[in-house]
Design goal:
By secondary structure, the protein is mainly α. The chain contains ten helices and no strands. Helix 2 packs antiparallel against helix 4 (about 165-190) and helix 4 runs antiparallel to helix 5 (about 195-225). The longest helix has about 35 residues, at about 75-110. Mean pLDDT is about 85; it is low at about 1-25. It binds fe (ii) ion (2 copies).
Length: about 300
């Protein structure tokens, strides 16, 4: 578990009235709290940056019906399972900000067009908002304000290869594979989610991840037109690494607690279901997409076939 940090204990200045203690009561948000805001004021810097941040977030935010959460109907173990899941998600979303930052450097170094860059920069902003949504969900389920842990993504870096190939390889890793898988798993998760808040949050994140995936596939096509053989070769080398990286995340241990039907209704699948979705994504989406662009995917379909799914 990450340490719990309140606005006060972390040294983050919170606007007056937002540093009230968290109780173990899990009712609707306090009446002084705006119900359609994703922003958690206690997590902000306390500087004049806040006003512009609020404007940016409001502009991009689809309304979330925070007051309609049914979290209070869950048992404490169910809430704990969901809180820990969202805590991990908040850390992943926060880290994704730096992932797109590093990718942006690769893209600029390779002379990527402006619309590719603007989408990459926009993705950083989206990931900040996803982190905020996840932080808010941790609070809803766990009753605690837990900041995402600090960190920095590192992407593969090979100074010997041409900048275009480096940018393509990391775009495949970050966007084509990770973000495309994110859209498929979010679609499936959303389908079983009946809690209005969880459904709205997952929908909001999903609509951004679609754009994050589109960024990669569009750039890949553009790059292939400039250097067909070299880009296809660099892509083929990265595909197995990128798939393994995603599989590692799916295979890792999960928070303690059963995935009950009630928990599923708040947007959580079993590890076995996630393996099934990844396997289908590899077979039906990723390999088909890469092969349509002339990129060899080796044994990807077999590597993540029935035997891998059954090993859950
Ligand atoms: Fe995200
Ligand atoms: Fe994303």
């Amino acid at each position: 578990m990450q340490p719990t940090a309140t606005a006060a204990s972390s040294g983050t200045a919170a606007p007056a009235g937002t540093d009230r203690p968290i109780t173990e009561g899990f009712g609707p948000p306090p009446p002084d709290e705006p119900v359609l805001e994703a922003v958690s004021p206690w997590w902000l810097s306390g500087t004049p940056l806040e006003a512009e941040h609020q404007r940016l977030m409001r502009r991009m935010q689809k309304p979330i019906p925070w007051a309609q959460s049914t979290a209070h109907l869950l048992t404490p173990p169910e809430r704990a399972r969901l809180a820990e899941t969202w805590r991990r998600r908040s850390a992943a979303e926060y880290l994704a900000v730096s992932t797109f930052s590093v990718l942006c450097i690769d893209l600029v170094a390779a002379g990527a067009p402006a619309d590719v860059l603007s989408h990459c920069v926009r993705a950083q902003l989206d990931e900040i908002r996803h982190a905020e949504l996840a932080v808010r969900m941790v609070e809803i389920y766990g009753g605690k304000r837990i900041e995402p842990v600090a960190g920095m993504s590192s992407l593969p870096d090979d100074p010997k290869q041409p900048k275009l190939h480096q940018a393509v390889a990391n775009t495949i890793l970050v966007s084509c594979v990770s973000e495309t898988y994110a859209t498929t798993v979010l679609t499936a998760t959303r389908d079983l989610t009946t809690d209005p808040v969880a459904h709205a949050v997952l929908t909001s994140i999903y609509s951004d991840e679609v754009m994050h995936a589109r960024l990669g596939w569009s750039y890949l096509r553009w790059a292939i037109e400039r250097d067909p053989d070299g880009v296809r070769e660099a892509a083929a080398k990265m595909v197995p690494r990128a798939l393994r990286g995603n599989a590692n995340v799916i295979e890792r241990e999960r928070p303690i607690g059963e995935v009950t039907e009630a928990v599923r209704a708040h947007g959580l699948m079993t590890p076995a279901e996630e393996r099934q979705i990844f396997s289908e994504c590899v077979r039906e989406v990723l390999v088909k997409g890469f092969e349509a662009l002339g990129i060899d995917c080796g044994t990807a379909v077999e590597d993540y076939g029935d035997a891998w799914v059954a090993a859950a």
